[in-house]
């Protein structure tokens, strides 16, 4: 379902510091870019972290949100 599709785009500053299992756990717990950056800092981050999270939504939902804000 679209509600469950979450895409992570990140720099090596994030993916080199957290295992796939850690990333998955963090994304299931509370999927925010800030939480991922904090997890890297807690793990002793040695590099810059760049994180983008994209959640796929139904086209109708996007249209409704755009109409709500007047776009």
Which terms would index this structure?
71 residues, alpha+beta, two-stranded antiparallel ribbon, 2 strands, 14% strand
Layout: helices, strands, pairs:
Elements lengths: L5 E5 L1 H4 L4 H10 L3 H10 L8 E5 L3 H10 L3
Antiparallel strand pairs: 1-2
Folded structure, characterized:
48% of the residues lie in helices and 14% in strands. The protein has helices spanning 12-15, 20-29, 33-42, 59-68; strands spanning 6-10, 51-55. A two-stranded antiparallel ribbon has the order 1-2. The radius of gyration is 15 Å and the shape is elongated. The mean pLDDT is 82.
Short description:
The protein has 71 residues and is an alpha+beta fold. 48% of the residues lie in helices and 14% in strands.
**Percent in helix:** 40-55%
The coarse silhouette is elongated
Q: Order of strands across the widest beta sheet? A: 1-2
The SSE order reads EHHHEH
How is the quaternary structure best described? single chain
Radius of gyration: 15 Å
Output the structural class. alpha+beta
Count the helices. How many? 4
Percentage of β-strand residues: 5-15%
Largest sheet: 2 strands, antiparallel
| Low-confidence runs of at least 5 consecutive residues | none
Mean pLDDT: 82
Q: Span from first to last CA?
A: 26 Å
Counting DSSP E segments of at least 2 residues, the number of strands comes to 2
């Amino acid at each position: 379902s679209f509600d469950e599709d979450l895409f992570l785009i990140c720099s090596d500053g994030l993916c080199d510091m957290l295992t796939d299992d850690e990333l998955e756990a963090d994304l299931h717990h509370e999927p925010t870019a800030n939480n991922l950056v904090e997890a890297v800092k807690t793990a002793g981050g040695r590099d810059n972290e760049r994180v983008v999270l994209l959640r796929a939504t139904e086209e109708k939902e996007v249209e409704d949100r755009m109409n709500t804000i007047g776009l």
